[in-house]
TrEMBL record:
The lineage of its organism: Bacteria, Pseudomonadati, Bacteroidota, Flavobacteriia, Flavobacteriales. Its cofactor is thiamine diphosphate; Mg(2+). Binds 1 thiamine pyrophosphate per subunit. The gene is dxs. Gene3D superfamilies: 3.40.50.920, 3.40.50.970. One of its GO terms (biological process) is thiamine biosynthetic process. Pathway: Metabolic intermediate biosynthesis; 1-deoxy-D-xylulose 5-phosphate biosynthesis; 1-deoxy-D-xylulose 5-phosphate from D-glyceraldehyde 3-phosphate and pyruvate: step 1/1. One of its GO terms (cellular component) is cytosol. Residues 284-449 form the Transketolase-like pyrimidine-binding domain. This is 1-deoxy-D-xylulose-5-phosphate synthase. It is an enzyme of class 2 (transferase). Its EC number is 2.2.1.7. It comes from Pseudalgibacter alginicilyticus. Mg(2+) binds at D148, N177. Keywords: Isoprene biosynthesis, Magnesium, Metal-binding, Thiamine biosynthesis, Thiamine pyrophosphate, Transferase.
Length: 586
């Protein structure tokens, strides 16, 4: 019976005392450890399984945490966390109060840079490398591990372009497994494929950028990786190592169904089989309502185009991509490009639905202003994952879009309270708007089983009253309406769904301000600059002196955890809302 090695390793210092010939056994144990925990605690699986050998080799060769190691996106860093002192609490991964699902500087000095959004690692590592050089720390190494989908992100190229003219101790390791969450796309993917097949000169793009390029090497052969890393340690200046790995390596199903096993949910650690939660007679996910509805509309309106930056499965645009591949585009991890691509299409009379998670759209802010709104181009932005998203935590909560979009002229902002409203605003938008529109909706399931109703046109800028009461007017926006409805079942208060943050329904607001002394606004968005701020601005512009209470996400970053508990922690759950309304309802 082999003695377990993993349980003797608490830090890379102990790892580096191991005999190199024992490392394959350590890899096997680390893989099993990851599988056993993620099977029951959920999380990102495939990416971490794919870099087990690379992770061990990096901590074996480099003097971490002095040598700086940055993981791009960081969803592949479970092995890194387990080997750097977090084995014993790794079972708390992504749980409220537990460790983060991504490297986080507050969590460990081995997590040298906080990540979660793709394509940042090269810039961060270069920044560290230049700093080390200026500080005279000439022996310090700086390593960025970036995937084949993430390196196609514009920011990664910006980092490479700069690094190529520096003589810093920077090593960029391309973890090439030929897939993002969905299959990687674009000319770079084709190029890398040909390099691997040997039908293309070995990565002269990188050499042209003045990098010392080496590879491709087998990213699962620890000995090969270690000898190459040891060689590269002595090479001065910017270096680029191309490693080939298999996403999901070591679990058959994760290797064959790599999309699903990127984040598979619960599964049987022994067999690898998924444990599917019954969805019988459950309301659909908002993303699927989007996905099915855009197909329905695109069949009727040939001008409709779908665009996603690398999230075909997550956004459910894959339904349209499967049926109409010439009208639905996965542009890769390229949010800025996605937005301006849509703008270009709109100038030619097409009707682009640009589907980008709220948090990832932050990356394309100038494109929204400069390329879309300033030119008043009718792009239809569908912001999925708006609001608190749960276990992905502060890097992924979509809680700023109402604030960051509201100050942009010409932009319509709509938030559906349910799936029927989402369908109807999509239908309305494709009829031909004179402005761009942003439609924001949450991660996960909606509230309506019979969502597939006939389309109804929505009047732009019109809100609606959902419940009549007295003394207190509650104004909600979007899907948080569900919690309000539950909270006021026994309260005689009025509840309005304003539906639009821009333009506001001013006629309705005048009536509300004239009839209720106290007005409460609620949003699954930061209270800074969001829906409540819009209502306050309306009141001040019209000299109303009513009491306005703004409820929403406080001005802090919200940690990871299940959505229900996170909503409770900020007082947006039905129970807390009921208490708050009752106090105001004298
Ligand atoms: C800016 C941004 N856009 C999209 C995502 C969603 N996302 C997370 S992982 C991933 C795929 C990453 O693929 P790759 O870089 O090849 O790494 P791998 O998972 O293959 O290890 C994507 C698109 C993100 N995290 N950040
Ligand atoms: C790591 C990353 O950014 C993605 O995998 C993200 O976690 C997907 O989020 P959803 O699970 O909400 O699609
Ligand atoms: Mg990849």
């Amino acid at each position: 019976m082999q003695k377990s090695l993993l349980h003797t390793i608490h830090t890379p210092k102990e790892l580096r005392l191991l005999n190199q010939k024992d490392l394959p056994q350590l890899a096997q144990e680390l893989r099993e450890f990851i599988i056993n925990i993620v099977a029951t605690k959920e999380g990102h699986l495939g990416a971490s399984l794919g870099v087990v050998e690379l992770t061990i080799a990096l901590h074996y060769v480099f003097n971490t945490p002095i040598d700086q190691l940055i993981w791009d996106v960081g969803h592949q860093a479970y092995g890194h966390k387990i080997l750097t002192g977090r084995k014993n609490n790794f079972h708390t991964n992504r749980q409220l109060g537990g460790i983060s699902g991504f490297p986080n500087r507050n969590e460990s000095n081995y997590d040298t840079f906080g990540v979660g959004h793709a394509s940042t690692s090269i810039s961060a590592a270069l920044g560290m490398a230049i700093a080390s050089k200026l500080k005279g720390e000439f022996e310090k190494q700086h390593i960025a591990v970036i995937g084949d989908a993430s390196i196609a992100g514009g920011m990664a190229f910006e980092g490479l372009n700069h690094a190529g003219v520096t003589d810093t101790n920077l090593l960029v390791i391309l973890n090439d497994n030929a897939i993002g969450i969905d299959p990687s796309v674009g000319a770079l993917k084709m190029y890398l494929t040909n390099v691997k097949k040997g039908t293309q000169k070995r990565n002269n793009i990188i050499k042209a950028l003045n990098f010392d390029y080496s590879g491709p090497i087998d990213g699962h052969n620890i000995n090969t990786i270690i000898s190459e890393l040891k060689r590269l340690k002595k090479v001065k200046g910017p270096k680029f190592l191309h490693v080939i790995t298999t996403k999901g390596k070591g679990l058959k199903q994760a290797e064959t169904d790599q999309v699903k096993y990127h984040a598979p949910g619960l599964f049987d650690a022994k067999t690898g089989e998924l444990i599917v939660k019954s969805g019988f007679n459950q309301p659909p996910k908002y993303q699927d309502v989007f996905g099915f509805t855009i197909v329905e509309l695109a069949k009727l309106n040939k001008k409709i185009i779908g665009i996603t930056p690398a999230m075909p499965t997550g956004s459910s645009l894959k339904y349209m991509m499967d049926i109409m591949p010439d009208r639905a585009f996965d542009v890769g991890i390229a949010e800025q490009h996605a937005v301006t691509l849509a703008a270009g299409m709109a100038t030619q009379g097409l009707i682009p639905f640009c589907n980008i998670y709220s948090t990832f759209l932050q990356r394309a802010y100038d494109q929204i202003i400069h390329d879309v709104a300033l030119q008043n181009l009718p792009v239809i932005f569908c912001l999925d994952r708006a609001g608190l998203v749960g276990e992905d935590g502060p890097t992924h909560h979509g809680i700023f879009d109402l604030s960051y979009l509201r100050s942009i002229p010409n932009l319509i902002i709509f938030a559906p309270r349910n799936e029927v409203e989402l369908r109807n605003i999509m239908y309305t938008a494709q009829l031909g708007l004179k402005h761009p529109i942003a439609i924001r909706y949450p991660r996960g399931q909606g509230v309506t089983r019979n969502w597939k109703q006939a389309f109804t046109k929505i009047e732009i800028g019109k809100g609606t009253q959902l419940k009549k009461g007295d003394k207190l007017a509650i104004l909600s926006i979007g899907s948080i309406s569900k919690n309000v409805t539950e909270a006021i079942i026994d309260l005689q208060v009025s509840h309005y769904d304003l539906r639009f943050v821009k333009p506001l329904d001013e006629t309705l607001l005048h009536a509300i301000f004239k009839n209720y002394e106290t007005i409460v606004t609620i949003e699954d968005n930061s209270i800074k600059g969001g829906f409540g701020s819009a209502i306050s601005e309306f009141a001040s512009e019209n000299n109303y002196k009513n009491t306005i209470k703004i409820l929403g996400i406080p001005d802090v970053f919200i940690e990871h955890g299940d959505v229900g508990t996170l909503q409770k922690s900020v007082g947006l759950d039905a129970e807390n809302l009921k208490k708050r309304f009752s106090l105001l309802y004298r």
